[in-house]
Amino acid sequence: MIATLDDALNYANLVKIEGNDHVQIDLNLVSKPMIIHVKNQQHVLLEKEKEVLGFYLSDHPIVQIKQKINQPITSIALIKDQQTHTCCVMIDKIKSIKTKRGDSMAFVTLSDDTSSMDGILWPNLYNIVKDDLEKGLIVLVKGKFDPKQTFLITSLEKIEISEGK
């Protein structure tokens, strides 16, 4: 319906006949607009929810992907120690910087369906994955928290998502 909203509004303006003190509608002036049916795209709906509300109302995009992964995954909210954990997360924010030695590295904000965390991509890993990094990308990260509660990422693997979901 939203796909044809502009056409519907234009049609309403075309068939409206305004008089001095009244408005008439003559549906025979122009042919009716065609209605375009668009299949709901889950990722677009989730993106709009996050944009408008600031959070995901229905489901986090990670939920369905976590179910398809055949290895132990730790939710961010459950990490309470400094052991190595593997998490399925979405990249929410990337900030690239240069170190004192001139190497590139990045600070990232990662989230899953339970919480979010800040992470560090050290220069050796960042140089390998920097071309594939983008906001909204869903990845498997392995690492551990440092005492300042920043997730030190030791490996990052892109998860391929098919549109069929």
Summarize the structure.
This protein has helices spanning 5-15, 42-53, 62-68, 123-129, and strands at 16-18, 23-25, 85-98, 104-111, 116-121, 138-145, 151-158.
Throw out a few tags for this protein.
OB fold (Dihydrolipoamide Acetyltransferase, E2P), five-stranded mixed β-barrel, two-stranded antiparallel sheet, 4 helices, 7 strands
Describe the structure.
- This protein is α+β, with helices and mostly antiparallel strands and 165 residues long.
- The protein has a domain at 59-158: Nucleic acid-binding proteins (OB fold (Dihydrolipoamide Acetyltransferase, E2P), Beta Barrel), CATH 2.40.50.
- Helices cover 22% and strands 30% of the residues.
- The strands form two sheets. The protein has a five-stranded mixed barrel.
- A hairpin with a 5-residue loop joins strand 3 and strand 4 (104-111).
- It starts with a helix and ends in a 7-residue tail after the last strand.
